[in-house]
Design a protein that fits this description.
Blueprint lengths: L6 H11 L4 H20 L2 H10 L3 H13 L2 H28 L7 H4 L6 H18 L7 H9 L2 H13 L2 H28 L2 H5 L7 H42 L3 E9 L4 E8 L4 H9 L10 E6 L8 H18 L20
């Protein structure tokens, strides 16, 4: 017994799956609602659960299949279903984030606003695995796994969040990520159908359309180029962040680091320390070690404050007042957090 659909059976299956039904719409609304809560609560397990029940993969695979076999009717049906599902998802996500009391952008939301070349690779690999899994008659975990890997729901939820909070940068970034996922799943499906011989079997008596191949090639290049620049920026930021962390851990091991900040535009790293006082020779040595941490172009400013443990309670309180006032004037460091003296990495003396 063959466990795979024949080309004609697979085409019939695609036609049967690409229908707008109330049940699928309800499932989609539930999954987008769950995913929005997961993003809002910064919960990865909730987001994964939402992606497992999402039906968004079906129309995207349908578009790729229809393009590969040059079936205009199937393409219209798949496109219609995709538009309906995306519209429903955006409406539900926007409504949720409009009424949610949690308005700040969680890490999971921010993570969907800066797509890179790796997202392109994941979408293409996921689309390839997805079309192979969709052709199997027996139930398998390939398509659900692809739904998790390509992460179609979170970017849509983030678009809804962007609309609700009117954040243009997040809107552009998350929309671009969704376009990457849809585009390269479609392209991978198109190639997979051709590679498996389904397209030639279905279109035995039809002429192939080379312009579709050219259009998809051009589309893939246009989608990929911005993601490459984003990936380069992400790698640079990651290297700088790693270098700063290593510098702080190794060069300021004998000090208490009260604060550290990095200005990307000025390439300026400011470190505020207390405890053991650094001599000018030690400061010069730290500055000369910056290239060892990949920070050759970075300017280092070290602010040394008195040893809090050597001050009386009144002196320490006065110093902290001045320090906090200065920090509040210079930046919004405390804008999204509460300050508790118990959290300080030192103890005040009475």
């Amino acid at each position: 017994m063959d466990h795979h659909y024949s080309p004609s059976e697979f085409k019939k299956k695609m036609y049967a799956d690409l229908k707008v039904t109330p049940s699928d719409s309800v499932i989609l609304m539930c999954s987008i609602f769950i995913a929005s809560i997961g993003l809002n609560m910064n919960s990865i397990p909730i987001i994964i659960g939402a992606m497992l029940v999402s039906p968004l993969m079906t129309p995207i695979l349908g578009v790729g299949f229809a393009l590969s076999v040059s079936d205009l009717t199937l393409l219209k049906r798949a496109t219609k279903l995709l538009i309906v599902q995306v519209s429903v998802s955006l409406i539900v996500a926007t409504l949720y984030f409009s009424i949610s009391p949690i308005t700040y952008a969680s890490n999971e939301i921010i993570a969907r606003t800066s797509p890179t070349i790796w997202d392109v690779v994941i979408a293409f690999a996921g689309g390839t695995a997805g079309i192979i899994g969709a052709r199997k008659k027996v139930s398998n975990n390939i398509v659900p796994g692809v739904a998790i890997a390509t992460a179609l729901m979170p970017p849509l939820c983030t678009v809804g969040y962007s609309i609700a909070t009117m954040n243009l940068d997040y809107f552009l970034g998350s929309s671009y990520l969704f376009v990457i996922n849809c585009g390269f799943i479609t392209i991978a499906t198109f190639i997979g159908i051709r590679f498996m011989g389904i397209a030639s079997a279905v279109n035995a008596n039809k002429r192939q359309h080379p312009r579709i191949n050219i259009a998809l090639a051009v589309l893939s290049i246009l989608i990929t180029i911005p993601s490459i620049f984003s990936a380069v920026t992400l790698v640079q930021e990651s290297l700088i962040s790693t270098g700063i962390t290593s510098l702080i851990d190794e060069q300021f091991a004998d000090n208490v680091v009260i604060d550290q900040s990095y200005d990307e535009q000025k390439e300026l790293l400011t470190v505020t320390v207390t405890g053991k006082r650094l001599s000018q020779e030690e400061v010069t040595a730290i500055e000369s070690s910056l290239p060892d941490y990949g920070l050759a172009d970075t300017n280092l400013v070290i602010n040394q404050v008195p040893d809090i443990n050597a001050l009386t309670g009144e002196q320490a309180a006065a110093f902290l007042d001045r320090y906090l006032e200065d920090r509040l004037r210079q930046s919004s460091w405390f804008s999204n957090r509460s300050f508790n003296l118990d959290e300080l990495p030192f103890q005040l003396k009475d």
